[in-house]
Amino acid sequence: MKLSAKLAGAVSGLSILLSAAAVSAETLFWSTQARPAEEAQAMRTDVLAGFGPGVDYQPNEEGPWLTRLKAEIEANSGSIGVLGSLHGVFSSLNADDLVDLDDLGVSSSSATFNNLAKLGTDNMQYVPWMQASYIMAANKEALQYLPEGADIDALTYDELIQWSANVHEAVGQPKFGFPAGPKGLKHRFFQGYLYPSYTNGVVRTFASDEAVTAWEKFKELWEHTNPASTNYNFLQEQLLSGDAWIVFDHTSRLAQAFNERPDDFVAFPAPAGPTGRGFMPVLAGVAIPKTAPNMDEAKELVKYLLQPETQIATLRATSFFPVVDVDLPDDLPPAVRAAGDAVAKMSGSSDANPGLLPAGLGSMGGDFNRVFVDTFERIVLAGQPIDRVLADQKKTLQKIMDETGAPCWAPDAPSEGACPVE
Amino acid sequence: MNARLLPYVLIAPVTAFLCVFFLYPFFLVAQQAFTTGNGFTMDNFREVVGYWKFPISMRNTFLLALAVVPIQLALSLLMATMVNKMKRGRDLVLYVWTIPLGISDLAAGIIWLAIFEQSGFLNSMLHGLGVVDQPTSFLSYQNLTVVFIAIMLAEIWRATAIMLVIIVAGIGLIPKEYYEAAEVFGASPWKRFVKVTLPLLRPSLQTALILRVVLAFEVFAVVAALGGSTFPVLMEQIYENQFLLQNSGTAAALALIVLAISIFFTLIILRALRVPKGATI
Questions:
Q1: Is B121 in CB contact (< 8 Å) with chain A?
Q2: Residue A187 shares a structural domain with residue A303
Q3: Which terminus of chain B has a smaller tally of CB atoms within 10 A, N or C?
Q4: A172 CB within 8 Å of a chain B CB
Q5: In what residue span(s) does the ABC transmembrane type-1 domain sit (chain B) (predicted)?
Q6: Cα(A131)–Cα(A142) distance, integer angstroms
Q7: pTM, whole model, 2 decimals?
């Protein structure tokens, strides 16, 4: 080997070593949130750059995210410093694998959120990090077809159906858009919006007469829903392409539409039913796995994320709202303003009927969601009789509640022991 | 080195690799499938087979394999024969035909989604030509046949090349003398294909079919992109069990079911296309 080649080898070897050392010095922030490339980049440059010791922000899909975390926990040695994910994902983890975070002295300004973050234990298992919700959005073209006398900020389900029907008739195409694709968040619509609005419950009232009405109404709405909805996962795409004019989705899954063409769309609260205006928050949190290589730095990072300035930077980067009290600046991106308004109107409405996130389901959270997805697919897509499907799915739901022993959560009336399906 | 030992030494690395990355995980998966918290059980299998979507996804997977593989076999034979006859530009054509192989299956699914969706290329074209007044949605739960055809097209486009490359290599190995002899006896091109090419192509056909059939039972990303939630297949059920329900036991059980189906068809193909003992090309 020539001297130059030897030298080159030595230098490259050294640089690999150095870069490995540099990477390991940073805290690995392993997240399921802010996955799109622009959001992830904004997280790195605008949110996390201010953290002194350095952060290696790595967002990933839930599957790989969980696989690596579980592998590290099983091996009892890991490189992940901080975990970022949704409440539902954390609640499926074993609370013993997460470090108790009470002594950090940071928490959300919402007692409900802090309570959820205990995951049924006595201690904080994660710290609430950011929040969002689901709202409605519409193309301004659709506004002319609003039923007479309907106030877009206080719609009822009947008015929404009428509106969608008017658009359908006028344009000749169903223009309601619903996230029924494989990655769409349809189950949240049923759990947090349709059921609370019609039955004032989710679990107890799953197969009630009111639930039958709710599904009948949803079938009416479905007649004016773009049938390609079973491929829709992020409704911002269909808003922008014009395939759907009136849509329901997660605020951050609508953000791109508002940011690209802020003048073309409006955001508004979810509709109300006989038992109020049901709606549901989305809660993301940060936690520290017990295998974190540098515990102190990980804790510092969690504290840093909860600082008001970081929370505002996170809002700009991800369209997820702060969980601590902050003064919002005026120059926020259009999507944030639109979504913020709609959420404020929704939660401030006189008939608001806020639902909580499912709690206490542990690793059965996925099974719980599947009950609602299956019910939807059987009633709406396969056209099976509503009462039969509900009676059938009720058994699965009861089994999940019995196995987990999860007590009822709002708007269901509290229960002693496992929440009963009545 | 001892000549008798040499072959074993040469296959040792591959064997070790297979043991570590195939056999060992396989036993782990089997263990997961047959156990829950309390020892040996068939519960996982009962659960996945009893789920209402299982028969549907089973049927869809088989239908798709049944529709796609024969067409791909015929197409790849046709394409391979054409390529073989070409004097110039053979490599170029082969390269172009194998481009889809280099594209990940999810990307392939998205490409075809861009064609078929409501604001996609096909709709814009039909609209531009005045065939339709308004863009229509082809891929909806109401037209499962269209969804099926779209998935079929995407699969044929994406995976025919796998069979093609194997068959092209196989055809190249057939000695020209056989064809010359057949020609001397006045065999038509079709006769030559049926009596010379096909029989001598058996080993390649075997490999190509096994690969393709096994892959057909693993179809997932293309279906997920085009069919959304309306066209469940077995692989999708595995994904759902593992990642959405976080139930490795039932996912492993489903994986074993797919494995059993694959082994069954592999055995059938091995038997049907076996090369008789002592026969050589």
A1: no
A2: no
A3: N
A4: yes
A5: 58-269
A6: 29
A7: 0.83
